[in-house]
Amino acid sequence: MNKTFLLNNVRIVLSHTSHPGNIGSAARAMKTMGLADLRLVNPKRFPDPAAHAMSSGALDVLDNARVCASLEEALSGCVFTVGCTARRRDLSHPMLSARDAAPVLLKHAARQPVALVFGTEMSGLTNAELDRCQLLAHIPSNPDYSSLNLASAVQVLAYELRCALPGLPLPPADTPELAQHEDVELFYHQLERTLISTGFLNPAAPRRLMTRLRRLYARTLLEKEELNFLMGILKAMRKVD
Question: Is 212 left (phi over 0), alpha (psi -120 to 50) or beta?
Fold first, then answer.
């Protein structure tokens, strides 16, 4: 069975890209592997002639790219997000190699949109951006010089996604629907609000509690129905309070 249709549900998100040429090169990398959905979070310059020049014919990907005001907007509708980073962060989500992360991402793309997020050329993804991911991916490289060009990183991840397709088992048709990114973020907002109102969370000294809770719930991959239960519980707790 040809499973390239799964790539239609994979969104490439570039956050705060400085150089428009990297956007064009990333579009080219995407098109060579069959990816088309590009989201740009506050790029420094776009559209730009340098992006078109470096796309080498992938103008359709560039012309259809959506510029977003925030990562939240770029991830709207997604149910699973992988952040690409060169190093493990403190209290980070699980990290896999690009090769091992690819089938995990594609498994969820079988039914709903997913995203692969890349940070700035100089510093990568921020801790706040990584908090919005459920999994981290890294590209094994020379430990003495692990810096990859942004478009090169997109090319490697896109290649691994393409290579993972043939052996990928598709989930059963009755697999429960996962909660979308924006709904999960609303849950985190309401959870923090509730924890503050009960006195469990001191906003003056949060001690990274919400980061730890994000890790906990990210591991569960909340289903849409499960999230509705949790939101109902929080609502009831605030009424009692």
Answer: alpha
74: three-class secondary structure by DSSP: helix
User: pLDDT class for 78, splitting at 50, 70, 90?
Assistant: very high
- The CATH class of 4-164 is alpha beta
Question: Are the beta carbons of 182 and 81 closer than 8 angstroms?
Answer: no
CA distance 98 to 57: 26
Strand 80-84 and strand 37-41: the pairing is unpaired
pLDDT higher than threshold 80 for residue 70: yes
Q: State pLDDT tens for residues 105-136.
A: 999 999 899 999 999 998 899 989 999 999 99
The residue written with tokens 């707790």 in the block is 237
Using 50, 70 and 90 to split pLDDT, how confident is the model at 49?
Answer: very high
Q: DSSP letter for 82, please.
A: E
Domain layout of the chain by residue ranges: 4-164, 181-240
DSSP one-letter string for 95-143: EEEHHHHHHHHHHHHTTS-EEEEE-BTTTBS-HHHHHT-SEEEE----T
CATH tag for 181-240 (out of 1.10.8.590, 1.20.210.10, 3.30.70.100, 1.20.1600.10): 1.10.8.590
Alpha-carbon distance of 84 to 156, in angstroms, equals 11
CA dist 3 and 114 (Å) reads: 16
pLDDT of 89 higher than 90: no
